[in-house]
C-alpha cells in the first residue's frame, strides 16, 4: 500500500512502480476535494496508454531494480532547508508542523517570518514539500 504525499497521478505511478498494489490519497482529498481522484485516475490511465502498458499491473514493481538501500546513498553532499522567496510566505505553519512532527524542531515562525535553525535540520526535505508557495528549498551546506 503506497501512502504519504500522493497528490498527483505521477505520485501514484511512482508508488506503483515501486511495488505498491494500491495507493491511498487522504490529505490531498481534504485540501482539494474528492474530485481530485477522478483527475488522478485519468492522468494515470493516459500515462499507461502512452507507455503502452496493458494496465496498472504492467507498471507495478518496474522501478524495483533501480532502488537501492539507504546505506548505499551518497553522503558526499547534504542538503538543508533554506528560506527563499520570503515575500511568498503566508505564515501557514505547514513547515513548522512537518518539522515538529518529524522530531527535529528546526523551524519556527516569529513575527510571521519563518526561522530555520540549520544546526537542527537533518535534511529530510519534508518542509520544502509541504510549503505551498515554494518558500523553503533544499540547498547544500549547513
Automatic annotation (TrEMBL):
It catalyses: (S)-dihydroorotate + NAD(+) = orotate + NADH + H(+). It comes from the Archaea. Residues 80-109, 112-141 form the 4Fe-4S ferredoxin-type domain. SUPFAM superfamilies: 4Fe-4S ferredoxins, FMN-linked oxidoreductases. Its EC number is 1.3.1.14. Keywords: Oxidoreductase. Pathway: Pyrimidine metabolism; UMP biosynthesis via de novo pathway; orotate from (S)-dihydroorotate (NAD(+) route): step 1/1. Belongs to the dihydropyrimidine dehydrogenase family. Heterotetramer of 2 PyrK and 2 PyrD type B subunits. Catalyzes the conversion of dihydroorotate to orotate with NAD(+) as electron acceptor. This is Dihydroorotate dehydrogenase B (NAD(+)), catalytic subunit. The lineage of its organism: Archaea, Methanobacteriati, Methanobacteriota, Stenosarchaea group, Methanomicrobia.
